[in-house]
């Protein structure tokens, strides 16, 4: 029986480019234990999006196996085991905050009425009380991302995929959102996989930072982040934090 977190075993995926084959992922194995937070970082083209697409059941590997919450990725997505938040928030502009958060319920044909309390709780959790009826166009970038995070949690997913959710935000807002995400994730108990380009974001949020390398896409190093939780904002300036950031930077340079 596959474990309840995220498990990739010997996963390979290549694409035919113009006359050449691109090995987007080459024999990648990664186990994210249930309830853990893993950050995935690496140069452009190292296969991060490919890995995410495989885990979401949007693509299939040439070799190897992927399990999400103990299920095949498509089954996990269809049964609401999987939650996902993307970089550009991807909200429906004509739907209110509340209606955007409820979108996965509509897609999975679950009753809105029986989730009223969940939605109200999520709105509170991400600090958007009073904005339930607002349209995305009336919100700031940070607020839109918080709607996307709330939406990703509405089915109480066991596994949460976050694809550069704060990539478009400025540094100050990003740090605030990182603190909020940590709190939200800790309350949810979900297994989280975050794709990011931010070393500080990865170290602040993750239990482990997986550093990937490209051509072919593979795991270079896995760096444990033993900082106690909950992590407070002042940790960003601590010597231990800087040491871990330096470790990740070094691994990104291929050492
Ligand atoms: N559908 C596709 N067709 C052809 N090549 C593809 C396809 N999808 C991905 N690739 C190639 O596979 C490699 C990995 O791409 P991927 O998008 O997974 O990288 P990434 O790490 O997410 O990059 P970035 O950080 O820039 O988003 C790249 O060389 C890319 O060109």
From TrEMBL:
<dbReference type="InterPro" id="IPR027417">
    <property type="entry name" value="P-loop_NTPase"/>
</dbReference>
<dbReference type="InterPro" id="IPR003439">
    <property type="entry name" value="ABC_transporter-like_ATP-bd"/>
</dbReference>
<protein>
    <submittedName>
        <fullName>Bicarbonate transport ATP-binding protein CmpD</fullName>
        <ecNumber>3.6.3.-</ecNumber>
    </submittedName>
</protein>
<dbReference type="Pfam" id="PF00005">
    <property type="entry name" value="ABC_tran"/>
</dbReference>
<keyword id="KW-0547">Nucleotide-binding</keyword>
<comment type="similarity">
    <text>Belongs to the ABC transporter superfamily.</text>
</comment>
<dbReference type="GO" id="GO:0005524">
    <property type="term" value="F:ATP binding"/>
</dbReference>
<keyword id="KW-0813">Transport</keyword>
<dbReference type="InterPro" id="IPR017871">
    <property type="entry name" value="ABC_transporter-like_CS"/>
</dbReference>
<dbReference type="InterPro" id="IPR050166">
    <property type="entry name" value="ABC_transporter_ATP-bind"/>
</dbReference>
<keyword id="KW-0067">ATP-binding</keyword>
<dbReference type="InterPro" id="IPR003593">
    <property type="entry name" value="AAA+_ATPase"/>
</dbReference>
<dbReference type="GO" id="GO:0016887">
    <property type="term" value="F:ATP hydrolysis activity"/>
</dbReference>
<keyword id="KW-0378">Hydrolase</keyword>
<feature type="domain" description="ABC transporter">
    <location>
        <begin position="6"/>
        <end position="239"/>
    </location>
</feature>
